[in-house]
Amino acid sequence: MSEHLSPSALLAWYAESKRDLPWRHTDDAWKILLSEILLQQTQVSRGIHYWQKLVKRFPTPQSMADAEVDEVLHLWQGAGYYSRARRLHALSVQVCLPTIEGGFNGNLPLTAPALLTLPGIGPYTAAAVASIAYGEPVACVDGNIRRVMARQSKRLDPSVKEVETWANAVLYHDDAGDWNQALMELGATVCTPKRPLCGQCPVASTCAGKSTPLLYPQPKKVKRKRLDLKCTLRFDTNGLPELVQRGNDGLLAGMWGPPMGDGIDVTGLEYLGVVEHTLSHRDIFVEVWHGSCHRGTEPSTVALSSLDRKILALGGI
Ligand code: SF4
Questions:
Q1: What rounded mean pLDDT belongs to the chain?
Q2: Which CATH number fits domain 7-215: 3.60.15.10, 3.40.50.2300, 1.10.340.30, 2.40.10.340?
Q3: According to the model, what pLDDT value does residue 3 have?
Q4: Ligand 1 lined by 196 (C-beta under 6 Å)
Q5: Cα–Cα distance list, 243 to 50, 83, 119, 248, 256 (Å)
């Protein structure tokens, strides 16, 4: 297994070639944490927009803890995976508790193990924040790093443990934050899944898999699930739709939208059409049924998911 990546070559390449992303201009752990949570499931280009909105409205954990979770969800709308917004709010509340109640007096904890105790923080996010914001020598493991490791070491299906062992072995302790970011940047921009640019790679000299990089790692077979739902889209006499807030668990938890489920009664309603929506492992098909209601809600005042926006669009909103 290759454990001899050249720190100087990789770090020099990173300094020269890294994308200019706004969270790379701050050492504020809270702002870095916001970027890491957003980027877990949102593309970088869209993540920038949401990060800027979040940082502006919630510049500190306290400012988020003082807000209602609905406001965080509202700001998050369109970014997907809304449970992240709910957990982020819970995290801010916990951070702002006094120490004797298990909190951190409004400041993010200073080590990866302590960050791991917070809601929504897994090993990757804890390591990323601790290394980038505090310089703690702790290795990150994400999909980009796994791909670089698999190709460097010619591994078809490395386990999480094996990738961790590799990432710890190659970690550059003197600048762990830049090192982790450099490895992830390499995976995101050079050692990409389908078109690796081995001719431009700063660590090609140690790469055992560079003659056949597409063999490593083997793609994981992901079974897609189909979900069929029904939804009632009812309007009041002012043209405002009936919107309800979903419960705290399940699909689109906490977000607002027209009543939706698999056992919804559509008797007497007019069929409008089907809205299709794709999540990472799920294809959702929603039958939309039109009717009237006593009192609707102005959509701009509540947090709506992309799926709900598509449904409203079908009804002409
Ligand atoms: S040489 Fe190619 S396969 Fe190896 S790490 Fe660099 S980009 Fe990836």
A1: 94
A2: 1.10.340.30
A3: 54
A4: yes
A5: 24, 19, 29, 16, 6
